[in-house]
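// run 5 | inverse folding | seed 20
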């Protein structure tokens, strides 16, 4: 079964390749009404039928997708997870949102050096009163949970760590994917497809991560400066408190040097007295 984006290709008697290179969604109302097909689309129902034609012990799923519907992504994950043979998933550009969930179905998962994953919470559009909005928020938490469970099960991160990354809409590099357990390897064959757009987005994400790192370093430095200023203020206050304490206890203090110095004023007074009391000869 072949089309431009949902493409099964039998490589040999041992391996079949499936390319998921489009949006993950069902037909919309216009497509159903006019019975048209969007080639840049993958849905669970079509994939279910296509999987019946796979007669090799190995299936490799190559992904380059922004994602799409949560329900379709979870359904495709479930279908691929039941594959009887060995399942390998490879990111050929990036696997975002629902596509990253599909990627996790692989027993062997590969994110090469120029590949990216992106995970986030489920989201939707809604309108209504405050009760409706609260209900939508509660529903979204529940809809997000299955994806959260899949990431937690397949990686070496805790549910809390995964949730924090989903809250941030985290872009995950090849090295991060390997360290955190999203992938099992960074190596893949050279015969892969990658869009120029994916390269562009990859460069943007890497630059953004570098800027974020620099920002965190600056914030750390500012925090250190604040600590120093705080310590200085504390020292000044302590010294002032000690002076007040000495004054209250009646301890002698050094007299200031200058025009207000009493000894200096006394010297001036003695000088004038001496001048006027000079005996005339």
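// decoded
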């Amino acid at each position: 079964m072949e089309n431009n984006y949902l493409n099964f290709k039998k490589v040999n008697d041992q391996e079949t390749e499936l390319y998921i290179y489009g949006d993950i969604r069902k037909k919309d109302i216009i497509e159903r009404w006019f019975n048209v097909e969007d080639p840049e689309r993958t849905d669970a129902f079509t994939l279910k039928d296509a999987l019946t034609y796979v007669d090799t012990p190995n299936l490799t799923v190559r992904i380059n997708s922004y994602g799409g519907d949560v329900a379709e992504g979870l359904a495709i994950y479930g279908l691929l997870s039941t594959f009887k043979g060995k399942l390998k998933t490879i990111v050929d550009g990036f696997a975002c949102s629902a596509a990253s969930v599909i990627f996790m179905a692989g027993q062997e998962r590969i994110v090469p050096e120029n590949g990216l994953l992106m995970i986030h919470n489920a989201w939707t559009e809604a309108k209504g009163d405050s009760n409706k909005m609260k209900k939508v928020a509660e529903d979204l938490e529940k809809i997000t949970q299955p994806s959260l469970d899949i990431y937690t099960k397949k990686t070496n991160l805790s549910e809390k760590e995964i949730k924090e990354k989903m809250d941030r809409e985290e872009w995950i590099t090849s090295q991060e994917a390997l360290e955190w357990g999203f992938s099992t390897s960074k190596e893949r064959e050279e015969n892969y497809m990658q869009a120029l757009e994916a390269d562009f987005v990859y460069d943007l994400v890497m630059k953004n991560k570098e800027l974020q790192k620099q920002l965190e370093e600056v914030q750390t430095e500012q925090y250190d400066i604040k600590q120093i200023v705080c310590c200085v203020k504390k020292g000044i206050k302590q010294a002032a408190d000690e002076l007040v304490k000495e004054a209250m206890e009646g301890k002698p203090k050094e007299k200031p040097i200058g025009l207000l110095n009493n000894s200096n004023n006394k010297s001036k007074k003695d000088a004038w007295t001496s001048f006027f009391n000079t005996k005339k000869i």
